[in-house]
Amino acid sequence: MPNKPHSSSASCPAAAGAHIVQQEKAQLDFSRDMSYGDYLHLDELLNAQHPLSPEHNEMLFIIQHQTSELWMKLMLHELCAATGDLAADRLQPCFKKLARVSKIMEQLVHAWDVLATMTPPEYSALRPYLAQSSGFQSYQYRQIEFALGNKNAAMLKPHSHRDDIYAQVRKAYETPSLYDEALRALQRQGLAMPAEYLDRDWTQPYVASDAVQQAWLAVYQQSDKYWDLYQLGEKLTDLEDAFRLWRFRHVTTVERIIGFKRGTGGTSGVSYLRKMLDIVLFPELWKLRTDL
Question: Which CATH number fits domain 55-136+177-291: 1.20.58.480, 1.20.1440.230, 2.40.50.140, 3.40.50.1220?
Fold first, then answer.
């Protein structure tokens, strides 16, 4: 039997595609309505990359850091809201936001994989164009660290040249951290908590406490009684676990690309970043595991 002739749309993928769009009645005219690009301000976003060098790889370097800053903006949005939920004993909404923060950190971990495709000679070629600019100066990252309890007055200084940014960082520095609010939540649910941990100078670095560890230990040993607090402890542990991976991936990527050269921001580079790996945000939640 002779083969049936193919329809014109089957023989022409473009015609088939146009037919599908017509069937779907998709809106195609945006001369009077808001488009996808309008809503996301894509013109501004996609024109915010301004390489200073003639190097092909600088676009990777810029976009890597710009996208990281966008993820950090969302992370701060979620962290601040989660801390507010915790202060108001809205634990379930808090858990959802903390889980999202951990997922954002996973995205940031994988972002280093892309930057790691840059070789040492490629980075060396564009490095002089960076001058003294460095991720060390990221004011959003600093606010994240402050929100998680790693308070350090010296880290305010890099932002003092901009009053608007300095005010944001200073606010995060002076505000109770996520963990500070967690300890207050334990106290409100009947667990003994040292008074000096409930109302203190929030600008000071957190110091681990045996009494706080005993409170968390009670939560973990009586998880049926303190189920919400038990979940809170695990969400905080998930968060610090993800944060450690993010910092570790940063260290290894930097070492892979620049070795032990000093950072553009003036730090010792890899040696400085390795010291940061030793900082524990929620110490009692890690220590108690030995006693369980």
Answer: 1.20.58.480
